[in-house]
Amino acid sequence: MKNILFVASECVPFVKTGGLADVVGTLPKMFNKDEYDCRVIIPNYRCIPDKFRNEFQYVHHFYMDMGERFNSVHVGIMEYEYEGIKFYFVDNLFYFGGDKPYADTRYDIEKFIYFSKAVMAILPVINFRPDIIHCHDWQAGLVPVYLHTLYKDNPFYSGVKTIFTIHNLRFQGIWDIKTIRSLSGLPEYVFTPDKLEYKKDANMLKGGLVYADYITTVSDTYAGEIQSGYFGEGLDGLLRARNQSLCGIVNGIDYDAYNPETDENLAKKYSVRTFKKAKAANKAALQSELGLDRDDNRFVISIISRLTDQKGLDLVRYALDRICDEFTQFVVLGTGDGQYENLFRDYAWRMPGKVSANILFNEGFAHRVYAGSDAVLVPSLFEPCGLTQLIGLRYGTVPVVRETGGLKDTVAPYNEYDGTGIGFSFANYNGEELLATINYAKKVFFENRAEWDRMVARGMKTDYSWAGSALKYQDLYNRVLGW
Ligand code: ADP
Question: How far apart are CA 89 and CA 78, in angstroms?
């Protein structure tokens, strides 16, 4: 049996702000249980729903030193088994008592330094010695650093390997060296430009990338892109240097959680055989729910996303007047930057019946938007993998995407000459290209509905479950352990 420990800041069904949570919550279920004992550790946020928190079992608590500033910090350990996977929750109300998982950067830095150190300290207490600690994103960046510094002579951790997965290179956990040094208790020698130092500051993600045995990211294209100056977020040199220990493994989606045949959120369930009528019913229900004009003969295009620059929303702003013609309805579900929240609120106010702005986060509602839309728009500036296009495909909702990162790897563009492809895509980060691509999609939708429906069926049949990618992670684990 190989022991794997996932370390992350969010995980479905407990806490989710983006795709990271979907991956961390789903992938452990997909491994061969006879060969891998995969467990997950996340913070015990106060904002995890009570229906889960009330079921958590207390395991133990102790006090931990944390660098120069604090020498006696509470670490509680809670445990909960869910769908066959053991989850651990690091308990500390001071750090995790907020109403959402992340707050301002300085506070988050301290929070996840604490979290990383607590993860290391907990392992002997729960008597789980991982063969591999699989760290996700900057919040877990210091785990490999601790392993190779403060814990390097401790026999319990001897031979433990680490894998670091980059879900988004933009977020790195950067603060001044003095603060990070004193909060983390890490030795001075790690704060050099070949290790954690980054433009005179300290960078927690960089620590993970330097010290991990292997690095993965969530699509092949993104694995290549991040080794270039444009996408490398200042770390492309390091990633090029680690090129031999870096690969892309594309994300899947949970085919049980996202299944239009069994989805209780929908007005009408459907499969690839029944989608035509059922999607019309879901569209009508969505139009009613959102107060849009109830008309099957409108093209409903949606964005379900964090509302940030990464997601290509300035292109949407540029083209929105022309996207919203009399044949089209535009739906947004998302939260994020005020400028985009207000942009969409403004359009919804000016174009009632045609534009719907839902500035909120709601999983069940998201499922209804996927099911009731004809197309899902993902025009990202960069996109490590992207899950919304995969969920769209599963729900027979045609993705319209920009060819970057995982969007490029997962959405084969429609080819009208040989009748292949499962979505629409454009190459350049340009509002006119975005508009032309949406208009092309509309043309097929309105003028050649049979072709459109065949494309929907092809998309629904494409396998983006975790099965294939989970095998790739298993291969990687075996390779790393064979070293
Ligand atoms: P990212 O991780 O960059 O936010 P992904 O496409 O990888 O983007 O994952 C986004 C996930 O979050 C998807 O499961 C999507 O359905 C979900 N999501 C995004 N915004 C909302 C929202 N406002 N309400 C419900 N789900 C949302």
Answer: 5
- Find out whether the beta carbon of 387 lies less than 6 Å from any atom of ligand 1: yes
Rg (the chain; Cα; Å): 23
Secondary-structure percent of the chain, ordered helix, strand, coil, rounded to 5: 40, 20, 35
The residue whose CB lies within 8 Å of the most ligand 1 atoms, and thus the one to mutate among 222, 306, 370, 401, is 306
Residue 277 CA to its chain's centroid (Å): 32
Instruction: Specify the ligand 1 atom closest to the Cα of 387.
Output: 6
For residue 253, the surrounding DSSP H or E stretch is none
Give per-residue pLDDT as tens, 401-424.
Answer: 999 999 999 999 999 999 999 999
- Angle, CA of 88, 94 and 98, to the nearest 5°: 80
Atom of ligand 1 nearest to the CA of 20: 2
Q: Per residue in 112-132, pLDDT tens?
A: 999 999 999 999 999 999 999
d(CA 6, CA 9): 10
| Rounded mean pLDDT, 147-168 | 97
Cβ atoms of 430 and 315 closer than 8 Å? yes
Whole-number Cα distances in Å, 105 to 108, 172, 342: 5, 10, 24
**pLDDT tens digits for range 198-214:** 999 999 999 999 999 99
What are the beta bridge partners of residue 375?
Answer: 301, 398
Q: What are phi and psi of 235, to 5 degrees?
A: -115, 15
131-144, pLDDT tens digit by residue?
A: 999 999 999 999 99
pTM equals 0.96
All structural domains of the chain: 2-252+467-481 (3.40.50.2000), 275-463 (3.40.50.2000)
Which ligand 1 atom is nearest residue 378's CA?
A: 6
Going by C-beta distance under 8 Å and a sequence separation of 6 or more, which residues neighbour residue 357? 332, 341, 344, 345, 347, 348
State in Å: Cα 16 to ligand 1 middle.
Answer: 8
